[in-house]
Amino acid sequence: TDRYAVVGNPIAHSKSPRIHAMFAEQTGADLVYTSVLGEVGRFAETAEAFRAAGGRGLNVTVPFKQDAWVYADRLSDRGELAGAVNTLSFTAQGIIGDNTDGVGLVRDLEVNHGCTLAGRRILLLGAGGAARGVLQPLLLAGPGAVTIANRTFDRAAELAIRFGGFGYITASTYHELAGEHFDVVINATAAGLDDSVPPLPDTVLADNAWCYDLMYADQPTAFVRWARAHGAGHALDGLGMLVEQAAESFFIWRGVRPDTASVMQALRAAR
Ligand code: ATR
């Protein structure tokens, strides 16, 4: 039996053990996936203990993704660029770090919901770890342009430079968005934690726009409510991304792609 776990703090409400248990059952994989409460400032010790006990891989969530990036011996390109790791594999070749969040987001939008990103005007809200984690896969989807808006403009400008080689990308304040329209608006800010939304102009959504909140909750998030109130064609929270990033991690570890639709359905029914 192969052992995997998710490390975070807090961790009690993580859906990852349920998701991976469903993937394992579907694919007949002989594995156990648990959750581990990490101690802030001691991520490496926690990960080492799990590895020493024979663990095969870890998912990493808030607030340890940057610690995991430092801890890994080797990084995938997307993990390196993200500056954050959500998937660790303990292999004979060492500890390999990857980040499946961006792929999870793009797959949920494009495959599960039929949103075409190619050629679209995308607005990414926020310039912290969550934004950085999804930028490369987002740009590889071929949008017409990506604008990063952030309260602290300099952080948006830094990301625009860092990812400029992958596509047309600019930085903005919220204020400067007045008069602009976007086809896809992705919320990667932490504003939702206080049940608030960034200060967006009322007119920022193009006709039939897509709004996507990286956050999810049992109730509609503040950004999903904002999107509905402002006439978005589609308002999605991050539950689909959660399942898709998990599927990509499972694929990295097991070489098998689980079916995500049935898992998504089970999670929605349990809400
Ligand atoms: P995370 O890992 O969740 O991205 P982070 O790196 O601390 O966490 O980044 C939080 C992001 O949410 C930042 O873009 C932050 O804006 P600043 O860079 O200006 O701080 C944004 N944010 C947090 N609270 C916000 C709020 N109430 N309104 C708008 N943006 C907010």
Automatic annotation (TrEMBL):
Residues holding NADP(+) = 77, 126-130, 150-155, 214, 238
Pathway participation? Metabolic intermediate biosynthesis; chorismate biosynthesis; chorismate from D-erythrose 4-phosphate and phosphoenolpyruvate: step 4/7
**What SUPFAM superfamilies is this protein classified in?**
Aminoacid dehydrogenase-like, N-terminal domain, NAD(P)-binding Rossmann-fold domains
* Reactions catalysed according to its record: shikimate + NADP(+) = 3-dehydroshikimate + NADPH + H(+)
Q: What does this protein do?
A: Involved in the biosynthesis of the chorismate, which leads to the biosynthesis of aromatic amino acids. Catalyzes the reversible NADPH linked reduction of 3-dehydroshikimate (DHSA) to yield shikimate (SA).
Report the PANTHER family cross-referenced here: BIFUNCTIONAL 3-DEHYDROQUINATE DEHYDRATASE_SHIKIMATE DEHYDROGENASE, CHLOROPLASTIC, SHIKIMATE DEHYDROGENASE
The annotated subunit structure for this chain is: Homodimer.
NCBIfam families, A to Z: aroE, PRK00258.1-2
Q: What is this protein called?
A: Shikimate dehydrogenase (NADP(+))
Naturally occurring in which organism (per UniProt): Plasticicumulans acidivorans
Gene from which this protein is expressed: aroE
